[in-house]
Amino acid sequence: MTTQxxxxxxxxxxxxxxxxxxxxxxxxxxxxxxxxxCLDAVENGEIDTGVVPLENAIEGSVHLTIDxxxxxxxxxxIAELTVPIRQHLLTHPDxxxxxxxxxxxxxxxxxxxxxxxxxxYPNAEIFxxxxxxxxxxxxxxxxxxxxxxxxxxxxxxxxxxxxESNIHDYDNNHTRFAVVQKEPKTLQVKDHPVEKHKTTxxxxxxxxYVGALHQVLAAFAWRKMNLSKIESRPMKTGxxxxxxxxxxxQPYDQILFPGVQQELEALGCKLKVLGTYxxxxxxxxxxxTK
Length: 290
Description:
By secondary structure, the chain is of the alpha/beta class. It has helices at about 15-25, 35-45, 65-70, 105-110, 115-120, 130-140, 150-160, 210-220, 255-265, and strands at about 5-10, 30, 50-55, 60, 75-85, 90, 100-105, 125-130, 145-150, 160-165, 175-180, 195-205, 225-235, 240-250, 270-280. The protein folds into 3 domains: about 5-85 and about 175-180, D-Maltodextrin-Binding Protein, domain 2 (3-Layer(aba) Sandwich); about 90-165, Periplasmic binding protein-like II (D-Maltodextrin-Binding Protein, domain 2), CATH 3.40.190.10; about 195-280, Alpha-Beta Plaits (2-Layer Sandwich), CATH 3.30.70. It has 9 helices and 15 strands. The strands form 2 sheets. Strands 1, 2, 3, 4, 5, 11, 12, 13, 14 and 15 form a 10-stranded mixed beta sheet that branches. A hairpin with a 3-residue loop joins strand 3 and strand 4. The chain starts with a strand and ends in a 9-residue tail after the last strand.
């Protein structure tokens, strides 16, 4: 069996790497500094599969991922997994109670811990990094005056201590990760139960007119197709021009979906299937802190 090459938003110690380790049975894992770099590697054939963050329960969609999948590459979502996100305040091993003047992390992680930072570190300067794993690397280099927000894996990989555990503002903090491919290949995943099957479609309207979105939704509604998410994103062709991303809670079939497509095309809309895939929910065990 050919070894699958899997890319992810790195470096080691990111939540994406935790998701990859939880889902895949094995393979050759390749770390990328940014989401575009990972998706470009899939597009160019450097790797077979990419795993990137798609949506967080607190901060919403990762727009960079969505926009890059729509506008820059031609890839299909072939699976998704949802994992719990536990954010911790990580400090240098030489930290002994000094004032923390810098806090480093990814913008979404900072936002997920806004109230904690506002209450406990109102004067600390915030620095944004490409990932939580990269933030841990920065703190390792900076010294005891700096701290990072990240997970226990980032702490372990960089020799940092967990000063405060679970500092995110809301307990139900989860992130969905998209597993994407350009050329379909069989995934070698661990034996996790499939929570549901989903299909994600992109719908574009011919123009903005009264009742346009209602007509789009009606094409799904009267067929009793449940929609778990609807989101608008700019087409990048001018103000007021949007496309809609729709998650349908069922796999693609040869009856209902073609019917929806024909009905929408009769209205002048366009429908593109971005993927039909299994959805996994995986619990990552919390670390035992000191």
